[in-house]
Each structure stands twice: as structure tokens, then as C-alpha cells.
Amino acid sequence: MSQDSQPGLSRRQMFTGTTAIVTATSLSACGGDEEEAPIIRPDGVPMSSFGEESTAEEVTAGLDLSGQTAVITGCNSGLGYETMRVLASRGAHVFGIARSIEKATDACNSVDGATTPFAGDLEQFETMAACADAIGATGAPIDMLILNAGVMALPELQQVNGIERHFVINHLGHFILANRLMEQVKAAPQGRFVTVGSQGYLWAPDDGIQFDKLDGTWMSEYVPNDAYGHSKLANGLFSLELARRLEGSTATANVIHPGVINTNLGRHYPTHIKIFASLFSWALPFFKSVEAGAATETYVATAPVLSETSGFYFEDCNPVVAGHNMENAAMAERLWTVSEGLTQAYIGSSASDVEES
Ligand SMILES: NC(=O)c1ccc[n+]([C@@H]2O[C@H](COP(=O)([O-])OP(=O)(O)OC[C@H]3O[C@@H](n4cnc5c(N)ncnc54)[C@H](OP(=O)(O)O)[C@@H]3O)[C@@H](O)[C@H]2O)c1
Predict the structure, then answer these.
(1) Cα of 342 from ligand 1 centre, angstroms
(2) Distance between CA 339 and CA 52 in Å, rounded?
(3) Which uninterrupted H or E stretch holds 147?
(4) Around Cβ 156, how many Cβ atoms within 10 Å?
(5) 223 contacts: CB under 8 Å, gap ≥ 6
(6) Which end of the chain lies in a sparser environment, N or C, as judged by fewer CB atoms within 10 Å?
């Protein structure tokens, strides 16, 4: 991947997340007509004919996923639910992970096809280790591990064991799951790690991951989207370093931005913004339906043409060169090492390694 391209913050990019409605409205009111930064494509990565309006059903049309196993976090809501539904409808056996077994069971039972519920709370690391071990006990090679769950715009600075909470939920909890299931993914004929990141990585600090202030105090004044963006940059760097570590195996790792979709992700925003979003998102051109929002993660998890594509960032079912540290290999390697240090009691190979929290 190119290291030297740093596309600017386009108008469309500013729209990531539900608060984008406010930004969009004020820009429109000002008659803002600045040009979007051009999208830069990486060399050598297959392009698809799919785009921002394609749905998860459309990008999997004609695929028979019988015999394949998919694992997805956040299966009970929004993009994770739709992705699970479509993968199961194409014949995959989907292991759906939610915060509680009740939520996972309800979601799994409400879709057609083969599904199995699992529980794991991304901010309670011992539950993620136990979840991974329960999945491991099935013995099934994992063809797709989709790290989809996430939280956005927590209203005030919150910490879990001294670490800022977006970073814990969006990055560290998934880091544990991925590490603990690593060998099972590598055991599949062509296992894929798909991390659901966000264009919100552009909200991360210019100098990237704040290794010395992971407690969130790098923000002199707490800004919810900045904390989210920091964790989403971590998603991208995690995927980049994972891809490097998978070299020489048949497994791949990629990160995606799903688009802007009115899901429960906006639950922490003020009520007036949520009402505005629910009333008007259909009329705002940059909003996608949930069906379209699930397309990119579903496409990257299943497209036969991507069997050897690893270490890339996708939007609208196509690869994009991301800037703003997303391709900083040294930062990615450091993040991996730091994350190992923060989760070392939970990323071992068996449940006996797990400490009581
Ligand atoms: N929607 C967008 O516009 C947008 C844009 C860019 C990126 N994304 C990314 O897309 C992914 C899916 O988001 P979504 O839009 O589908 O939002 P959503 O409807 O709110 O779904 C988020 C899922 O994550 C789960 N989750 C949250 N905290 C968790 C925890 N501590 N442990 C386990 N699960 C947890 C939620 O479970 P509960 O229901 O139990 O809370 C829910 O299942 C996220 O990674 C998000 O950052 C979304």
C-alpha cells in the first residue's frame, strides 16, 4: 500500500457519523460547494462494479457459502445483524456474538439459515476470551471473522481499567477475539479478517495513536467524535499489522468503512440530533440504508476475487488509499505491541490463561 498519499478531508468525509447531519445542514445553508478530494485507488487491488448503493444481498448474489463459517460481533443490531442475515441466507453458518446470550439468541433466531449465538462483552475482556474459547470448542475453521461491533460518541470521557472506553470496545476487545481465534481463521482454506472501521479515522489526532495517553487525556477538552476517531484509526492500524503478520499464510485482513447509516450507533447523541436523523436521513443523499451499509463488510468477507487481497481499506465495496496515518506501518506495529501488553492476560491460547477481572 502506498505510504505517501494523504488525501485531504473532503466534504463527503466530513459527513461520517450522525453528527454529520448538523455539519451537512450548516454547510448546505452556507451554500458550500467546494470540490471533493479525489478518491485514490491502490495499485493491484481488484475493483468491483459495486458502489455506494449496492446492498449486501446484491454483492453476494449467486454465491453459495455452504460449508463456510462466519463469526461476527454486534450481530443483534444495525450492520452486524444485516450482515449475519445475508451470510446465513447464502448458506454460511454464522456464529453471532452479542453482549449477552439473550441478545445473540434473539438475533440468531430471527434470521433464516444456520446460526449459533455466543456472548461476549468487548469491554469485559474475560468474556471475550471465554467467547473465543467457546467458538474454538466447536472446532470449526473460521472462513470469515468480522469485527463489526462498535460504540460511538460516548458523551463524556469514560475509562475501562484506565483506558479510554471507545479504544477498549472498538479496538482492544476485538484484538483479544482476533488473537484468540487466529489459528482457527488460518485453518480455513482462505480465512478472512474483516474489521469494520470508519472514515471517522480522520478525526484522530494528526500524530496518530496517543500511546502515552491512552486514558483519553490527550484531549484537553473531551470531544466524543475525536475519541471515536482515535479508536477507528486503531481499527485500521490493527488490520494493517495483522495483514503483515498473516503474510505467508492463506488468510487475509482488510478494514472497511460502511458509509453513513442511521443505526443505533447514534444512540449517545443528543435527542434533537437523533430525532432529526430519524426524520430526515432518507432525504439526505449521503445516508445509506442498512442494507447498503452492510454491503462493504459482506463483500470484503466473501468476494472470490479478493482471495489474495490483504492490508487494504475499502469504501463502497472498493479499495481506497487512506491517509492520516492509516497506512503507517511503524505505528501499526507499535499499536500491536502496546495492545498485546494491555491484553496479555487474555490473548493466550486457552481459558486457563484468563485472569479473573
Ligand atoms: N452507522 C454508521 O454510520 C457507521 C459509520 C462508520 C462506521 N460504522 C461502524 O459500523 C459498525 C457497526 O455499527 P452500527 O452502525 O451497526 O451500529 P449499532 O446498530 O449501534 O450496532 C453496534 C453493535 O455493537 C454492539 N456493541 C456495542 N458495545 C459493545 C460491547 N461493549 N460489547 C459487545 N458488543 C457491543 C452493539 O450491541 P448492543 O446493541 O448490545 O449495544 C451492537 O450490536 C461499528 O463498528 C461502527 O463504528 C458505522
Answers:
(1) 23
(2) 33
(3) strand 144-147
(4) 10
(5) none
(6) C
- Number of domains present in the structure of the chain: 1
Let me know if residue 236 belongs to a domain: yes
- Give dist(CA 30, CA 163) in Å, integer: 39
Per-residue pLDDT of the chain (357 residues; tens, 9 = 90+): 332 233 333 433 333 444 444 333 332 333 334 466 789 999 999 999 999 999 999 999 999 999 999 999 999 999 999 999 999 999 999 999 999 999 999 999 999 999 999 999 999 999 999 999 999 999 999 999 999 999 999 999 999 999 999 999 999 999 999 999 999 999 999 999 999 999 999 999 999 999 999 999 999 999 999 999 999 999 999 999 999 999 999 999 999 999 999 999 989 988 888 787 777 777 777 889 999 999 999 999 999 999 999 999 999 999 999 999 999 999 999 999 999 999 999 998 544 444 443
The number of the ligand 1 atom at minimal distance from the alpha carbon of 200 is 6
Atom of ligand 1 nearest to the CA of 170: 45
222: annotated active-site residue: yes
182 three-state secondary structure: helix
Q: Return the best residue to mutate from 13, 263, 290 for the ligand 1 pocket (most ligand atoms within 8 A of CB).
A: 263
Query: Is residue 46 included in any domain, yes or no?
Result: no
CA pair distance 204, 164, nearest whole angstrom: 14
How far does residue 196's CA lie from ligand 1's centre (Å)?
Answer: 9
CA of 34 relative to ligand 1 center, distance in Å? 31
Residue 6 inside a domain? The answer is: no
In a domain, 141, yes or no: yes
Which CATH number is 98's domain given?
Answer: 3.40.50.720
